[in-house]
Design a protein that fits this description.
Blueprint (H helix, E strand, L loop, with lengths): L9 E7 L3 H16 L5 E8 L3 H11 L3 E3 L2 H6 L5 E4 L6 H10 L3 E5 L6 H15 L5 E4 L6 H11 L6 E9 L16 H4 L3 H17 L2 E10 L4 E5 L9 E7 L5 E9 L7 E7 L8 E8 L2 E6 L5 E6 L10 E4 L20 H18 L7 H20 L4 E2 L1
Parallel strand pairs: 1-2, 1-4, 2-3, 4-5, 5-6, 7-12
Antiparallel strand pairs: 7-13, 8-11, 8-17, 9-10, 11-12, 13-14, 14-15, 15-16
Length: 397
Amino acid sequence: MAHDGHGPGRLRVAMVGHGFMGAAHSQAWRTAPRFFDLGVEPEMAVVVGRDAERTEAARRQYGWQAASTDWRQVVADPDIDVVDVVSPGSSHVEVAIAALEAGKHVLCEKPLANTVDEAEAMSAAAQAAAERGVRAMVGFSYRRVPAIAFARQLVADGRIGTVRQVRALYLQDWLADEDGPMTWRLDKALAGSGSLGDIGAHAIDLVEHVTGGQLSTVSGTLETFVHERPLMAEGVGLSGTASTERGQVTVDDAAFFLGRLTGGAAEGAIGTFEATRYATGRKNGLTLEISGSEGAIQFDLESMNELRLYESSAPAGEQGFRRILVTEPEHPWMAAWWPTGHLIGYEHTFSHQVADFVQAIIAGTDPQPSFADGLHVQRVLDAVERSAADGSAWTVI
């Protein structure tokens, strides 16, 4: 398939789903072509959802040309070039594979799927599609934080030596109220897992991305603190009134695991990982600390324009973590935005993701992270679940 299917300068996008991630992806599709030279003009052709009224409202709010409730029809439409999958995890496998087989480039939110079997099928479909020039990418958007990309450069350049230990925590508290309503993210059939897959997947991917290593064995524990939550009355949003019925929470609320890494600068390194949506007072606290033989790196998403670097080579009287403001044009992606010191935010990571994805399509190269990368993360999630279920000291991925 040609890069756009409609001659030069055109790439028509369909987005399946329109919730929180739909808003973020819509922002990116609107903004990326205004700040980056993509080599083509993406068109926000159609947004797809289950409910016609809500989908039409999303179309108007986010700026899509049309709305549909039939993803199969949209995927089969020869006028569509890209399918962006932001729906719940249970739908990823069917939508993504159908789109790839129809010759559409696919961007799919993380985690790639709900099970290893689903992720394997998706990765195989992506590999087959790539042989026909069709591209696929999984949306680990935090890779596109400039400070994270800069940290990866520093590790690759040997600035902190051999990686020995990593600590990755993703702490939120939006479920701390036990009377908060039931959502699809608490239903294993829809979400696959809870904190582990929803936010723990980001921690896993970032550690591997920055260090260049891969988790090989894990030992974990999972906990569910609140097993039932009120269902919302029909047609009532999250801020409305709950019904008297209660739904069963079937996912983990918190995940903790140890891991061993192989490869890259992280050969033989060990790591600790924590993901929870019950860390009272923490809103979006993704932190990463990488300790090496010659230095260390610290990152905190709640200060996402900063990176802290420790180098052992500094004179004894000058040692300590130093703050680097990652807003220089020399830093990844930053030349496209504002003057030095003018900060960017969460939404910019999605614009960077769209820019990289579209530029790969135009160049005829495979974008990163690939569906194979998504499959690997899925295997890590599965290994943590198996370890927690049977109490294994170590579980091989």
